[in-house]
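Notes continue from the previous slide.

Worked example: a multi-chain complex. Inputs as given:
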Amino acid sequence: MTDITADTAGWSCPAPLRDHPVVVMGHGGGGALSAELTRHLFLPAYGGEALEGLTDSAAVTLGGARLAFSTDSYVVRPLFFPGGSIGDLAVNGTVNDLAMSGAVPAYLSCAFILEEGTELSTVGRVAQALGAAARAADVTVVTGDTKVVDSGHGDGVYVNTAGIGLIPEGVDIRPRRARPGDAVIVSGPIGQHGIAVLSVREGLTFGTELVSDTAPLAGLVRAMLAVTPDIHVLRDPTRGGLAAALNEIATASGTGVALDEAAVPVPDAVATACALLGLDPMYMANEGRLVAFVPRPQAEMVLEAMRAHPLGHEAAVIGVCVAEHPGMVVARTGLGGTRIVDPPLGEQLPRIC
Amino acid sequence: MTDITADTAGWSCPAPLRDHPVVVMGHGGGGALSAELTRHLFLPAYGGEALEGLTDSAAVTLGGARLAFSTDSYVVRPLFFPGGSIGDLAVNGTVNDLAMSGAVPAYLSCAFILEEGTELSTVGRVAQALGAAARAADVTVVTGDTKVVDSGHGDGVYVNTAGIGLIPEGVDIRPRRARPGDAVIVSGPIGQHGIAVLSVREGLTFGTELVSDTAPLAGLVRAMLAVTPDIHVLRDPTRGGLAAALNEIATASGTGVALDEAAVPVPDAVATACALLGLDPMYMANEGRLVAFVPRPQAEMVLEAMRAHPLGHEAAVIGVCVAEHPGMVVARTGLGGTRIVDPPLGEQLPRIC
């Protein structure tokens, strides 16, 4: 047999990863386990300055243009759910990652990993949803790839998209820029995507119809930037929900977040479903919401602009960035007490996007 | 249950796809079945002008910069093989797709789909190989993603990379530009990647050590462009091999290719292995070779430049682009006859990259 020692040379598991010497579902949950994998496995292998920012998208310069560049794979189960499909997520998720740096999304790549034996009509419906979502988000799919894996090594359809967009001059939006005093704004009610997928996956109903909030947020961001380019942070609270997003921002910026729990908009149906199932809306995935850190003087104007936009009309200030308890998110509860909103370890619902 | 009719609306299978109403391995083989899927399923759903070029990478303009943008997913089995690994392929494959438009590759995204239960040491070794390949190719991984799927819905590690690069001014390289009279040049011996993967997959030995040719080709392309910007077509003959690449170019440009079969460099070990297994080297995948269509007056100089480069020192003229038999590749065989080199239906060895 040919010598392949060069490729199979030892790799030793760094300390924090040793608790899980094999991949567990939580490694893909966007929480603490995902972060460990990135910090201790991927960054040492190929990390650079851009990757270490751990933002949703990278800001790079090429040919004089300031670009945002981002990628996500989508493995949501089931492929179709109330309010959307893997095709919608594949567009909106990547478009939103670009928008969270203030970029105007322009072009997408789209790569399918199909499982042998999947009905072509399923692939066709996913592709149509993806095309419709791209048109709605005003981005163009310009390049693609299709691979097929043997039956039993996939799950119908996995999709990866990568996207590039142009970052306007004067815009510098990233988690590290959060500053004490910033107003923390959420663009709308939270938890809908998580509960919508859960309902169809588990065959549950919660009285009210709940549909995923999946939507492209670049238009909303454009409306916000029209008010002021001085927005410090934008983040879409997907896997791990608002809790994960706020903790990441607190950690990256070395600030704290003081949250007013009562101000966080939670639809009744989400609250009911979460109460029934012992889940916390703060940790539920969203696919069409953003959280913004805005300097206090501009906050009111930005909030107004958000509320004037169809995807932000229920926007609300939910807290403030503080110098106290750096790296931590602390919520004032409805009962007047406080609780620490811990970063999630994994995701409550695996394969939510 | 919530109404999800909007997402499950009918999709009807267009005529050419009806022979295979479900996904078959050949749909991922880069041959005629892949092309059918692209033309009749993906293009109607979200195709645009750029996608219709069916090139390895898209050429787009953003912020005044002329960019190449490309993506590929990698599902090769096994993950490590003589001469490389899925990590090397994930870098070199995407770098080469960018280089085939004459672009200078700059930034990569990298997204993993990991199977629950995979040893982290396996993931670590893949990541290290990927990092080493990126450094060797002079590209930076700037953004990434990790998803985990349940055991039994993956195969250890799948990787997607997307890449962006800058296309130099005055360079316009794409399949449609092939012109009768162009010399057809291959950069080196063919078939090594396919046979290397096959050998380790099937536990076969063929006397001689055979290692994958996986390599980043941007440096070789730069050396060629230093001679003349007037190169018409570049293509890396991956899935479906030289046969697929030449047929695609013939189809896209409406020209024919007259091949001198005896001039195609085939290593003895590849020839032996193919003879034993009833395979054709012309259809074997390569991951570090390119085929170039160069106007006759510049061909000798370009060939010289290729031979002076470590990845092109066995470069050879293997045929000529002709006006006869448009869309077809015809080979003059060693025995003085001719044979039509048909486009492959799928790939001889599924999951070769």
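Summary box: The radius of gyration of chain A is 20 Å. The longest helix of chain A spans residues 120-137.
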